[in-house]
From TrEMBL:
Name listed for the protein in its UniProt record: Extracellular solute-binding protein family 5
GO biological process per UniProt: peptide transport
Pfam family, one: SBP_bac_5
Sequence ranges assigned to domain Solute-binding protein family in this UniProt record: 87-450
UniProt keyword Signal present: yes
Domain of life: Bacteria
GO MF assignments: peptide transmembrane transporter activity
Gene Ontology CC, one term: ATP-binding cassette (ABC) transporter complex
Length: 529
């Protein structure tokens, strides 16, 4: 089984591209306040078109990337991520740790919830407990390492002690990962917050005032945010799953911004009244292979599928070049934050993998338990048409081997329910690393006890060590060691690292647009153009 390295044409580390807009440069503010600039003078309401619907406004319940983009304007954690991915103060105005096990947070005083009640330390303690509860917060609980204690250690101080060191714990308590602070009174009165009846309560600048699943969600500026004045009085998210309808809504002026524009439609959206900006989005797309499902427990089957995938052709034809063929879980941007761009490229190039080779694919299938082929299905969410197009291209190659792959589109809410189902052999992984941690994606999908049946003691040991190693370069080595072992076992089949396209009305612009922009109070980052 030939394991070969790939040498790829690399884009710049920041991965930023702009079409007919000013050059963009990353710049993270040192506090939560954002200069609203000219946006407030431009209009009172910002209307955003999302490519799918949300069933909950609470990312702790429904953890899709669109949920995080929406929550960014209304909910806060103890810390937040700046536009360069650095940790910045939020509800904690300061923090200290000496051993990556004990974390002491000084809570900001004078913070109001959106209903006018004042934040207390007890609210913070309640929110931490809620975020760790797998029943009330299924989408965030898994992010949390084992916690030894959470306690108030001063009038405005909270100390979290972990059972073991965690190199990435500070990102866990951000609203880009697994903590969304609410009040105890609201949470206990509304155990199903995030619904139409109880859309939520946070400390961010915009309050949810109306939520109609499958239609829209409306937020209004409170005017009392600790971080400063808001750029808009109202931000409304319209859920528009049909791309033609969403494009027409932008052309008619019914929406100002469209998030996650299909990459093969960038040229269609770009026009005199609309600019499209692109940035690497720390996303990973691949096939996760369930080794507990036959015939995917047979390594020859997994190798045959991997050899039948032409990643470079998919990036060129499906993504129109707006992405990069992936060889592992960590994105170049995330890994580069640990070891530098040049070293990240070299390390990723060194990962073993299976090249596109249909003759090799046929030979592997001939050695398998199903030499005549078999039938299987893969499902993808309606918000990711590029996933469906890629799957159809792969299905055509597999059909020549005798493997019939049925490609099925489902609503994104339904797709979430299939991600770890034991009845499917192939699952699409479409993961946006909101934290920029190179160990986030692999740590989730190949964690010890993962639902896909991958067991490799050496790989599990490397991931366990990476979770506690404070030195970035040593941690990067451990992450890539686990990834190399997973590649050799064909536990996953990487497809591409992505970019995100955002269509913006020509009279608006992001002064700074990075992979982390949409995880902050991003409406306030817009200025009149």
């Amino acid at each position: 089984m030939p394991q070969t390295s790939r040498h790829r044409a690399r884009r710049g580390l920041a991965g930023l591209t702009a079409l007919a807009v000013a050059a963009l440069a990353a710049c993270a503010p040192s506090s939560g306040a954002t200069d609203a600039g000219g946006a407030a003078d431009a209009k009172d309401t910002l209307v955003v078109g999302l490519p799918g619907s949300l069933s909950s406004l609470d990312p702790a319940v429904e953890g899709g990337i669109l949920n995080y983009y929406v929550a960014a304007i209304t909910s806060e954690g103890l810390v937040r991520l700046g536009e360069d991915g650095s940790l910045q103060p939020a509800i904690a105005e300061d923090w200290t740790t000496t051993d990556a096990t004990t974390f002491v947070f000084d809570i900001r005083q004078g913070v109001d919830f959106q209903d006018g009640t004042e934040l207390t330390v007890d609210d913070v303690l309640y929110s931490i407990d809620r975020a760790r509860d797998a029943v009330s917060s299924p989408s965030t609980a898994a992010y949390w390492p084992e916690v030894a204690s959470v306690e108030q250690t001063g009038d405005w101080q909270v100390t979290i002690t972990l059972a073991a060191p965690s190199a990435s714990f500070l990102t866990t308590v951000s609203n880009a990962a697994a903590l969304f602070i609410t009040s105890r009174a609201y949470g206990e009165a509304n155990p199903t917050a995030g619904t139409a009846q109880a859309p939520g309560l946070g400390t961010g600048p915009y309050e949810p005032v109306e939520f109609a699943p499958d239609s829209h969600a409306t937020f209004e500026a409170t005017g009392t945010w600790w971080g400063g004045e808001s750029a808009y009085k109202t931000v409304r998210f319209d859920f528009i799953p049909d791309e033609n309808t969403r494009l027409l809504a932008r052309k008619s002026g019914d929406i100002d911004i469209a998030l996650n524009v299909p990459l093969d439609q960038v040229d269609t959206w770009q026009s005199d009244d609309t600019n499209v900006v692109l940035a690497a989005d720390n996303s990973y797309v691949g096939f996760q292979v369930n080794q507990t499902a036959k015939p995917f427990d047979d390594v020859h089957v997994r190798r045959a599928i991997a050899h039948a995938i032409d990643r470079d052709a998919i990036v060129s034809a499906v993504l129109q070049g707006h992405g990069e063929a992936a060889v592992g879980f960590p994105t170049p941007e995330a890994l580069g934050g640990y070891v530098g761009a040049e070293e990240a490229t070299s390390l990723l190039d060194g990962l073993p993998g299976l090249d596109f080779d249909l003759d090799a694919a046929k030979a592997e299938l001939a050695q398998s338990s199903v030499p005549q082929g078999f039938s299987t299905e893969i499902v993808y969410p309606n918000t990711g048409p590029q996933l469906g197009q890629a799957a159809l291209a792969i299905a055509e190659n597999l059909n020549g081997l005798g493997i019939e792959l049925t490609v099925t589109e489902v609503p994104i809410e339904q797709w979430f329910t299939t991600l770890e189902g034991p009845d499917r052999g192939l699952h699409f992984t479409w993961y946006f690393s909101t934290t920029g941690d190179p160990g986030e994606v692999i740590g989730w999908y190949l964690r010890p006890g993962n639902p896909y049946g991958w067991t490799n003691p050496e790989g599990e040991a490397a991931l366990t060590a990476a979770a506690t190693t404070p030195d970035p370069k040593e941690r990067a080595t451990q992450i890539l060691q686990a990834n190399a072992l997973a590649n050799e076992d064909v536990a996953a089949i990487p497809l591409w690292w992505g970019q995100a396209a955002t269509a913006v009305a020509a009279d608006l612009q992001f002064d700074d647009y990075t992979p982390f922009t949409l995880l902050g109070v991003w409406p306030d980052a817009l200025t009149a153009h």
